């Protein structure tokens, strides 16, 4: 009876820590996915091209990528909850400062710092989840955690649609107040690890930074997985950042019926995040790489169809936007468990940080490129053509990772 009670208490505690981490991250995107909604009016206010707006987005993503390289390793060595709380509050401050600025250079610099502060959360949250979910249903835990990020985009889109018709500055002021409150609640109630782990684990048990980086960078299959995630992230951010511009540029802001279609993208992303954990287990027998490949190929086909249709405000485009979100982001839930599976429990933070660093280097490179494509073509639909090609590259790369980790014969058997 005592053992059953302890098991029940332990199960409840790990669910409590997962839900607290999810709640906190639920508001993190209010501090970075809001930018796309301000892009149109910001370009007018600053009198700059969309290419320059893309460079502002680039600085945030570059700051995020650099931060992942540093903060992922720190999450293995320092307190994850302290890092998340500090990152959230500093990100809120950067957003508020931007809302009072009229200088391209100032916004460029502040948005870059914002990216670094935002990077303090994801790997740290993954570290907390890995500490509490060491066995059993880890895929479900990561799927739910990834879903919270998708729902964070929904919340950000909802706030932004309501605020952008009023004043672009409010997009940077009001939503991040919820982020500040969320991180304070998180900081008060979350615990980094079970008490017995804290008592048993000494500083000597923590991996040195050289050891951690060597383990990750010396794993060829892990690095190829990072490359595939990079292409996935580039496609995801092309949709997240530029889809608002696609709809805002074709709708009257006083009656933005078509603008509301855009919220189906993050809703689809959230649905995909929670679904792909089950898809990888039930359909692909826990083969996460084949599950990722299927998702990327599906997204590629859907994006090509949207591009061929051109703009539409009907039911068909809404369904396609939802599905594009589902398949562009859902596979990311299958990427994150690969860090502990390929590198081991000790290097979860470092591995997650390196994965996310590569993801955001690719996403950063894609932002000014997308802005340039839109400027030169004069066609906002080119977003979807680019996404179709990028997700195809992600699918090809994850198959390469699959081949790198298994004998060729076994890979072909799994595929068919």
Could you walk me through the main structural features you see in this protein, from its secondary elements to its overall organization?
Residues about 250-255 and about 410-415 have low confidence and may be disordered. The protein is globular and about 50 Å long. It has helices at about 1-25, 35-45, 50-75, 80-100, 105-120, 120-130, 140-165, 170-175, 175-190, 195-200, 210-215, 220-250, 265-280, 290-310, 315-330, 330-335, 340-345, 350-375, 380-405, 410-415. Helix 1 runs parallel beside helix 7. With about 425 residues, the protein is mainly α. It is built from 20 helices and no strands.
With helices defined by DSSP (H or I, 4 residues minimum), what is the helix count?
20
> What ranges have pLDDT less than 50 throughout 5 or more consecutive residues?
251-256, 408-416
User: What distance lies between the first and last C-alpha atoms, to the nearest angstrom?
Assistant: 47 Å
**Approximately how much helix is present in the residues?**
over 70%
* Rg (CA only): 21 Å
